[in-house]
Amino acid sequence: MVCDMMFIVLYYVVAIxxxxxxxxDNDTLFSNRRNVCHPKRFLRYDWCLPENYDKQVEPxxxxxxLNRTLPWNYNFRFEIRExxxxxxxxxxxxxxxxxxxxxxxxxLMLNEESTAWNDSRLGPKDHISISxxxxxxxxxxxxxxYGLEGIKRYDxxxxxxxxxxxxxxxxxxxxxxIITITCKMQxxxxxxxxxxxxxxxxxxxxxxxxxxxxxxxxxxxxxxxNMPFHIELKELVSDSxxxxxxxxxxxxxxxxxxxxxxxxxxxxxxxxxxxxxxVVSWVSFFIKPxxxxxxxxxxxxLILCLITMCNGAQxxxxxxxxxxxxxxxxxxxxxxxxxxxxxxxxxxxxxxxxRKNFKAYGQYTLAGEPAFETAPFYRIVAAIEDxxxxxxxxxxxxxxxxxxxxxxxxxxxxx
Length: 415
Description:
The protein is of the alpha+beta class. It is built from seven helices and 14 strands. The strands form three sheets. Strands 2, 3, 5, 7, 8, 9 and 11 form a seven-stranded mixed β-sheet that branches. Strands 6, 10, 12, 13 and 14 form a five-stranded antiparallel β-sheet that branches. Strands 1-4 form a two-stranded antiparallel ribbon. Helix 3 (264-281) packs parallel to helix 5, helix 4 (292-316) packs antiparallel against helix 5 (325-366) and helix 5 (325-366) crosses helix 6.
């Protein structure tokens, strides 16, 4: 009697209420799979999957039954909220975007009589938004983002994602992501560099004979934070729409990003100060060679300032395999400051030689004999300088003698 009652209750739950028994992936009996089609409750749902639906099988496997041909199409939509970071040292670009993938699932069974298709509260017209957790019940494409360095999902109370089904049986899956990709950047012309980075996504294993793709992007410039680049997005060029691997040729979709560096700030911080240091170093030519401490202190200080500025510019600059434009400019400026210091060293050396040789040949030179024809050039210069000094001393002596003869001048000087 008890067994009969239990059988009746079980039959009521299964047959009358229409709940199907399903042996799931975890071999759990009585697992309730509500998205599986059942004749008695089909009209109660907007969509369902056939009982023989296998999510491990691609929808394009049975093309004869579907009356379709390859290649199968994937549609991508990229809504770029902002470019979060451009890391020149690591050669990476970080993007914040809504990544939407759409594909057709002809095995879906839809309730065309449902009023949900025209209800704007449930999504756009001819679309129904469902829980993103249902993505695990569908077959979904396996994708590859080329040059992927890292990926992060947004979570608030749950994962920021959405899933919708269209009346023509497309499945749209959208998710908010932070994606970091590598980029082939060149900084030879830094800080006047312009780099182009490509964001490419495609099927992981479906070659171009099997899978093709289309895409479109939206870039919200008004949400972009201030960055040291002018950012421009464009469609991929034709050569970048395919990728060749050993396993075949693959179709890819995406967009390219053009980063043009804002150089005005670097010019004011590095180029202008370095030029001014070079100009100040030229002032040393107007300082007498006899003023050794003043001239040496000026040139050495300028060289140290320029070296410090050069080191600071190199720390901020991105890594480059070759000498970039800023490094080359700093080296040239350092050369122009080093040249006056080297020139002053030669001046001091020649002055010392002038004094030594003048002591040895000075009497012979002042005699006016034709020794200048065979003597070194510095003897002539030393003799001319000595004659000028003596002439200057004689003028001072005469002026002093005249002032002592004039008493009026003495009174005026005393006053």
